[in-house]
Every structure is written in structure tokens, then in C-alpha cells.
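Notebook, p. 212. Picked up where the previous page left off. The plan for this session was modest: take the two constructs that came back from the sequencing core last week, fold each one, and keep the raw output in the notebook itself so nobody has to go hunting through shared drives later. Recording the first one now, exactly as returned: residue sequence, then the C-alpha cell string.
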Amino acid sequence: MNKFTSLCRLTMVMVIAGLWGCTVHPQGEREERDTAAQAGKAFEKQIENRQVTPLPENPSPDQLVEYALLNNAELEQRYWEWRSALEQIPQDGTQTTTLNVTAGTSVTNGHASWGSSTVSLSNDPMTDVKWPGKLDAAARQDLEIAKAAGQRFVMAKYELRNKVLSAYYDYALNAELIRLEQSNQQLLQTMVSVTDARNTSGSSGQQDVLEARNELEMSGNEIANMQSQLPSQRAAINALLSRAFDASLSAPADLPSSQPIAHTDRELAELVVKQNPKLLALADEIRAREQAIRLAKLQYVPDFNFSAGTDLMGITQSVLGQATIPIFRYEAIDAAIAQAQANLRVSEAMRRQTGNDLASQVTADIAMIRDADRQLELFQQTILPRAKLIVNVSRSAYETGQASLLDLLNNQRSLIGIERVVANLRISRERNLVDLETIAASDLSSRSASMEPAQ
């Protein structure tokens, strides 16, 4: 009976030790893990297979973004940083001490007996048992840090989208300007032929011939200069897609179409406050700093050591408890609390300033988009049709002998110049729009590309 009682007591001690050593899982950890697992399905599948779906021959901007979201190495890095931060939670939420089992016996005249044999259970004497509130504070702090890492992953997705689209816009604009300059070159070639003929007939001087040829050579140089930029622009896009720098990527045949913004200025400002990943990450960090203060204050609470033992006859039992009182560490603990409070103020100030900077950037982007829309409407509805009409009138006048060929060519060159302005305005507007979408972490136009990697 004594042995049975002793065994029961030891079992109770082991159960208590096991409960004391349970891992703290703060509320919200499971949801955050599920979110990370869902976001990482495509990444992990891609890593496991190491098979890259090829791009179509002439990919759209949406297809380039989708490809980048699956293959960009920097974005993958952000994902694994998120997963790593999540795995810190159970580490800091678990007792650092372990169960220590000690058995011993006394040997008398070469013989040992049950009565002189003992067994005891204790925590690792080198590591105290922490007060459970300390584990809870540390785990909650880690959870908020992990949430911030998750928001930075979201921010990295939108920043990657921004980079891909901006690089694509540069590529498309350069290709469009090359096409326009090639049209200009054809006109200049005609002008050279006309001035040569007029010089031969004596109706034009040598100066006109030289000026026309200089214009033609300058145009050819400009085309060559823009064409020399195409490989580097293609390499920049391929780098974002984690492809070989010289992988084939056709230059866009047209500029991307402009999409209207389906939000008012006030709605855009509200979206930034509500959805901007940088602000959300800083809010998570602020909550983590608050838990750091709580954890620092809990260092005043003593840690403990426990042990329980019995002889194998069940006659004698012993229970021992110790408390590690931080009596000589009060100044250090006070400093740690003050430091944690200062860190909280840093994060709060950073969030306020970030909010102000983002509000300023949003205001500037909106102003530039609205101004670009105004200019595009003016050019496309009034100036460009008028310039085309002038060319048509000049062509009719030339055909009836009422205008010279040079007048017609100059009017056509003016039309090409206006088309250049329109092309630059369109791309500038799209760059500002994608900047705004990055800040708001939202698709503000009618684009259909998902910001979630394909499942």
C-alpha cells in the first residue's frame, strides 16, 4: 500500500510538472498560421516541383505580375521570414526548464535495499521554472511580431507588382517611342529626298540639304540609342521574374490601356489608413512593444525550482521548493522597463510619421493622376484630332498645289511630337496609379490580376 501511495504521489508530481511545462498558444496564433499556410501553398508547391510554367509569347502585364508572384526570390524570402517568426511563438511560450529524474541508493556492507534507495523528480537545476505570465507575454509579443512579418509579406507583394508594372511600362514606352521615331525618320528621309531634288533644280540651297541630312542622322542616332536600352529593360523585368537575364520577352506592341479609378479621393485616403501593410505592420509592432513592457515588468516576479522524492519503500517522502528572487536586479529591471517604454514610443512616432508621409504621397499621386487625366482628355479629345485634321488639310492642299511638301512633312512631324507627349502622359499616369495601388494595397482600377499566388 505504501509503495502504491508513493507511486501515486510521484505520478501527481509528474502531472503537475507536465502541466507547468505546457506551451502557451496565444489567441490568434492558429488563425495566423492558417493565413501563412494559405499564402504559401503556391510557393511551397513551386519549391517542391521546381518547375516553372513558361510565359506566353506576348505576356500581358497581369501575366507578368502573376508569374513574378510565384517565382520572385525576394518575395519568397519574405514568406519564409513570416513562417520563421511564427515558429518563435512556441519556443518562447514553453518553459525553458526540463524534467530532471534522480535515482540513488546507499550500499551497506556490499548490499543495497529498497529502503535505502530513492528516486526524485525536479526541474533542471540550471534553469528555473518561469512564472506562466512571463511565457504568455513572450508568446503574445512573438505573435504580434509574426503578424508584422505577415504584413511585410503583403507589402512585398504589392511592391513587387509595382516594380514589375513600372519596368513593363518603361519597356512599352520605349518601344512606342521607337515606333514614333521610326515614323519620324521616314518623314525625314522624304524631306532629304525633296531638298536634294530642290537643290538640284536650284530652288533650294546647300544649307537646306545639310540641315535635312543632320536631322535624319540625329533621328537615326535617337532610334539606335532607344534600341540599345531594350536589352537592359528586358533584363530588369527578367530579374524581377527570376528568369535568365537574356530570356526572350517581346517588346509590347501597344501601350497599356488606361483604366479609370473607381474611388473618390476621400475613399482612397480611407483605404490607405485601413489597408496599407506598412501601417498595419507598425500597429502590430506597437502591440508587440506593449507586450514587451508587460514582460519586462514581470521580471519582478520570482522564478521557481521544485523537487519531490521518495524512498522505494514508500516510508519517507520529500518535497522542496525554491524561489529565485531578483533582489539584486531591480535597477536592471527598471532600466529594461524604461527601455521597453522608449521602444514603444519609437514605434508610435514611426507610425505617425509613416502615416503622414503616406498621406502626402497619396495626395501627390492623386493630383498627378487627375492632372494626367485632364491633359489626356485635352490632347485626345481636342489637340490630337486637330493635329490630324491639319495633316489631312495639308495633304489636300499639297495635292492641289496650294502647299509645299515641306509644309505637309512639318505638320506630320508635329503630329508625331504630340503623339510622343500623349504616350509619355499615359505611362506617367499608369506609374502614379500603380504607386497609389501599392500604398492602398488594393486594385483601384478594373485590372483582374489577383494579388494571391495561383493555387
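Okay, moving on. Second construct, recorded in the same format:
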Amino acid sequence: MQVADELFGKVEEALNSIRPYLETDGGNVKIIDISPDLDVKLELLGACGTCPMSTMTLKAGVEEAIRKVVPEIRSVEAINITQPDDPNAKLPDNMQ
């Protein structure tokens, strides 16, 4: 269990490095699970949860930050990713 706690802490550390940028746009991210196979499941919160750019944010920002700190992570997935063509997708107020 200690290895899992250490891994969780490292992923959290990586997320803390990008949280200020997410929070600027009214968003955030939360770790849902880290599997034994080193797959990370996240939930995009706030504006990130409905933003049409969430796929890009996940891949270019969140996943990159995690892999930089924890290179052994196999994959990073958001459980609530918003597709750009989603009619309910909405840019954060400061991006409109």
C-alpha cells in the first residue's frame, strides 16, 4: 500500500504544478484512481469539465505534467472528457 500512496503523492505533486493554470480558467482536476497497471483516471472539474478544449488540456497539459514527474505511468484518462462538437461544451468566460 505504501507504493500506491507514494505514487498517488507523485501524481498529486505533478497536478499541483499545473493547477494554477487550470484555476485561472475556472477549472481543476481530481485523481479518481491509479490502477495496479499504472493507469491514471482523473475527473476534470469546474470549467475544465465542460470546455471543448478539455481533450487538448488533458493531453498537452495534464498528461505531460504527470509523465514528467512519474514517467512510469502508462496512461492518463479523464472520465468526463468533453468533445469539441458537444452542444453543451462551453469555453471559460475568460476565453470567449
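Notes on construct two before I forget. The longest strand covers residues 27-34.
Flagging for discussion at group meeting.
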